[in-house]
Amino acid sequence: MMRSSGRGDADFNTSHDAASGTFQLMARHDGTGGGGRFPLVDAVRGLAAVFVLVAHVSFWTGTSALDVPGAILARGDSGVAIFFVLSAMLLLRPWITGRTAARTYWIHRLIRIYPAYLLGLAGVLLVAALLPGQTGGLGSPGKVVAHLFFLQGYTDDQYQAFTQTWSLTTEITFYLLVPVIGIALGRLARCRDRVVFGTLAGIGVLGVLLQTLSTVWSRSGNTWGAGVLGRSVLGHLAWYAAGAAIALLVSGPRDRWERVAARPAACAAVALCVLLVTATPLGGPVDLHLPTPAQAAFKETAYAVFAGLLVLAAMGRPRGDVTTAVVDTGLARWAGDMSYAVFLWQVLALQVLYVLTGQPVLTGSFWLVLIAVSAVTLLVASASVYLVEQPLLRWAHRRWPTGRPTAPTSPSTPVAR
């Protein structure tokens, strides 16, 4: 479920050698870990938020179940995988290079995630209190407390307008593990490449097996325990392993990394092909029906490959194409800034729209709903970003500066499927 100007622990910059057409990475000091700024990473973060918004709208309007294009729209849930890969790549990198401090890391993570989250939760609780008949109401005190502490992913009792935040439970768990994982990866990086990436591949395979086990368990009737496993860090190890592999690549020898970053179009093209394949029956159902174990394994693997390749594609900036304009106009950075708030508010906007219009769920015009929800979400998200998130982050970086090169911490906050 993921993950900023004054918004993270670092910035990424790229330069393009016009003569040779190769990509060069430049670091600039600005936070807590080790690296430079890859501007297209912000664009990918924004794209992931759009993917998830499209998936939610396609489900609420019933479009996802209608035809082949609907199935493709439903695979916008792959935005979750993108956010998880980004989390691993951005947050592990400074720990791998030994250029961060635990106290600063915890403070920056808390301020990056929690204030905006509380604002979104307050909106959900307000609507639930005002419209209990249409939303299910506030529920028990335990339900509220679980959401206050990001525990909703471990329960089956979630607010309809905040169901996507199960992924924050997963991400918060990952954040707690980042220092340990990062240090371990730093030591692993001293080994031969075959050992390093073989180990990560093995971890990815383990994650796919656990996701498959979750599906088998669900089909046997135990939906709670199976759901917790499927939503957990363990269940999505493949996605995190993909991000860790990229973090190790970026932290390694420049020549090796540049060979990968010099082919962004190829990475993006293959990623798109993989995503399209997941829209076939191989990727499982596009509604709430359970997949077969084989479908679950395929989808988990395919999303890891898709998200990993898309993030790889964001590591370079080709000259003379649309991506240059996206970066130079600030659109990429704006998309990254907005992504977390868009994630937090999009389902609430959907819920309020359907309640106010009396439109039954699983019906409606996909395009009209998408336009209306996007407009409302962007409006509220802008207020969250410019009035809450960025001022607090600027204050946090002044109050707890790091003075070291850093890895970005703009939330690669995942969003729900």
TrEMBL record:
Protein name, entry field: Peptidoglycan/LPS O-acetylase OafA/YrhL, contains acyltransferase and SGNH-hydrolase domains
Keywords, alphabetical: Acyltransferase, Hydrolase, Membrane, Transferase, Transmembrane, Transmembrane helix
Pfam families on file: Acyl_transf_3
GO CC term, one of those recorded: membrane
Transmembrane spans: 47-66, 72-92, 113-131, 172-189, 196-217, 237-253, 265-284, 296-314, 334-354, 366-388
Residues covered by the Acyltransferase domain: 41-382
GO molecular function: acyltransferase activity, transferring groups other than amino-acyl groups; hydrolase activity
GO biological process, one term: polysaccharide biosynthetic process
